[in-house]
Amino acid sequence: MPGRFIVLEGPDGAGTTLHSRLLAESFEVNNQPVLLTAEPTAGPIGSWIRALLQQKEAMPADALQLLFCADRAWHMETQIIPALEAGKTVICDRFALSTLVYGSSVGLDSDWLTTINEKFLQPDCTILALPPFEVCLERLARRAEHDMFEEPELLRAVYNAYRHYADTHPEIQVVDTSGRKEDTAAQILSLVSSL
């Protein structure tokens, strides 16, 4: 496909949303066609997921991850693939790696999680926003709203799972997002440009 697919991943409080937006703005300033998107999406399934997470409704972990995958399938079909085919750079705040990390962190089988995500397009570049764990906690403490994944033990498990994934997948670009946002944004743009 003529476009490029870039994904920013990271634990809660890592800054994926901020840096996805700043990266997209860098493309827009240079008049490069870009689609900024996120998961869960604002689509029909993604909106339901967001409501479930905010309300902290009890749902089996495997059912929740299947919902994320259903939302991802909708996302690919209606937004990501059409944008890539049109030559746009797609910047996505979280994608399949989130399912692998969050799902395994709540005890789901990693092989099953991998299997249900195999059909999805692989990003051309995955950037892992990974500041020190304490920075994530400080940022989360400042948020007005919290979701079901923001329990201390789970946050630590998710953080460690992202770290382990990066250690075992050298193609992942790890960026410490604890510094000045302008410096971090420049580093991410440089990584994307070099790839």
What does this entry look like structurally?
- This protein is an alpha/beta fold and 195 residues long.
- It has a single domain (5-194), classed as Rossmann fold (3-Layer(aba) Sandwich).
- It is built from eight helices and five strands.
- A five-stranded parallel beta sheet has the order 2-3-1-4-5, sandwiched between helices.
- The longest helix has 25 residues, at 61-85.
- It is globular and about 45 Å long.
- The mean pLDDT is 94.
Concise synopsis of the structure shown:
The protein has 195 residues and is of the alpha/beta class. The protein contains 8 helices and 5 strands, in the order E-H-E-H-H-E-H-H-E-H-H-E-H.
Topology:
Layout: E1 5-9, H1 16-29, E2 34-38, H2 44-55, H3 61-85, E3 89-93, H4 96-105, H5 110-117, E4 125-129, H6 133-141, H7 152-168, E5 173-175, H8 181-194
Parallel strand pairs: 1-3, 1-4, 2-3, 4-5
Helix pairs in contact: 1-8, 2-3, 4-5, 4-7
